[in-house]
Design brief:
about 425 residues; mainly beta; five-stranded antiparallel sheet; about 5% helix
């Protein structure tokens, strides 16, 4: 190899069992297309594709895949970035037809990969890769190499420039920093190449770039997102009713954020099918009445976030729209963009149809119970959406009647109580 190539100085024993054998249980789906050239390319997955093996997902023209594992003890680079070196903690590798030399089997999300294709740099192949989108995340390592990707917005055929995207995080492209990109072909002086003009270089969301900057942090976009759920999405499960999304505007200018619901693509053959989209609602609090109101999120909705400020939004779910069978899986996406035209994020949204069998909501009180009853009759309740809509007396027990009485339920009084009369 070229003497310019610099390798990591330390090795660590890492366990990737959970990554190698993990499978996506319930997910939302969106396809991203990557354009690969003969030789070495760098791509970034904004979602998880661990539902199948690398060999099954990628065409035969892809011969090697190297996953970059962020490591706090990396060596810095001087002339060129780190490149694949087997046996180091920074890299996990898959080689087609060589299982003994491979310790990588699945493509995880929010991760950068080097991909080697057969052929020459003039030959291109488009790879459509279905993924389950995830909440953006990055980890910048000071005095080290960072192979990162970013959720930049593609406006037509054009991405934003690096200078505009990193305006709120200028250390990433400062004069002391170095940025490299892969352009295909063999590894060497011509691949990767250094980016010298951030003002004109476009930040492609499908690519990964090397950054060497005197900075630490978690920057991935001018607008930071965090959720009240632990799984990185608007996950309502079987019984959840609300999820809180926090938006932090890092820029010195106010931003208008747009939320647009989007359908999930069909699930891969190996994954649970999607019954339909989640019926999201926007929740707002009325300080005068002290009540929450919910509005169906049927189309694009906006909110303003002031300069260098944070807002919290509450989303709900209309479970009456989930008409499928019990345990049916509903999934969709929530697309988030902002007025500067830099960022494009898809958040996963999910819920499952719950069963209300055996569930009673509220209290029932009885009076006028006869002490003569030794063989009581039974009343069977009719339940719907967690409420009692009917009571039917069955059986031959009881006292003082010759036929089973009909039970009627009055309309609720002002205190919310109803009376059932036999």
């Amino acid at each position: 190899m070229s003497p310019l190539l610099i390798f990591p100085m330390k090795s660590f024993l890492l366990t990737f069992v959970s990554l190698l054998f993990a499978a996506t249980a319930h997910a939302q789906w969106k396809t991203t297309t990557y354009t690969l050239k003969g030789g070495w390319n760098a791509i970034y997955l904004h979602g998880d594709a661990g539902y199948d093996t690398i060999e099954a997902l990628l065409p035969s023209t892809v011969t090697e895949v190297w996953r970059w594992n962020t490591n706090p003890d990396q060596v810095g680079f001087i002339e060129t970035p780190l490149i694949p070196s087997s046996g180091t903690a920074e890299w996990s590798v898959w080689k087609r037809g060589l299982p003994a030399e491979s310790n990588l089997n699945l493509l995880t999300g929010q991760t950068a990969y080097l991909v080697k294709c057969s052929g020459t740099v003039s030959q291109q192949v488009s790879v459509a890769l279905k993924q389950s989108p995830q909440l953006p995340a990055n980890s910048w390592v000071r005095h080290g190499a960072n192979l990162l990707g970013f959720p930049s917005l593609k406006n037509g055929s054009t991405y934003p420039t690096m200078a505009s995207y990193f305006a709120t995080f200028p250390a990433a492209i400062s004069s002391n920093a170095k940025v490299y990109k892969y352009v295909g072909g063999d590894l060497g002086a011509g691949n990767p190449i250094q980016v010298f003009s951030p003002g004109s270089e476009r930040l492609d969301s499908t690519q990964a770039y090397w950054f060497s900057a005197e900075v630490t942090g978690n920057y991935y976009a001018p607008l930071e997102l965090s959720l009240s759920t632990s799984d990185g999405g608007l996950s309502f499960g079987r019984t959840g009713s609300t999820v809180t999304l926090r938006l932090r505007n890092r820029s010195a200018a106010a931003a208008t954020v747009t939320f647009t619901p989007a359908d999930s693509e069909s699930a891969p053959a190996t994954q649970p099918s999607v019954a339909g989209p989640v019926a999201l609602t926007r929740r707002s609090f009325d300080a005068v009445s002290g009540l929450w109101t919910e509005t169906a999120l049927a189309g694009a909705s906006t909110t303003a976030v002031g300069a260098n400020s944070t807002v919290e939004l509450s989303f709900g779910i209309d479970r009456s729209a989930m008409t499928g069978a019990t345990d049916a899986f509903y999934a969709s996406l929530l697309r988030i963009t902002e007025s500067s035209g830099l960022m494009d994020v898809y958040l996963p949204v999910s819920a499952k149809k719950a069963s209300l069998a055996g569930l009673w909501v509220g209290d029932i009180s009885l009076n006028n119970v006869s002490s003569k009853v030794s063989n009581p009759a039974q009343a069977t309740a009719t339940l719907g959406n967690g409420t009692v809509s009917g009571l039917t007396v069955v059986g031959s027990g009881g006292s003082g009647y010759t036929s089973a009485p009909t039970v009627t339920i009055s309309a609720p009084a002002s205190n919310g109580n109803s009376t059932a009369t036999a």
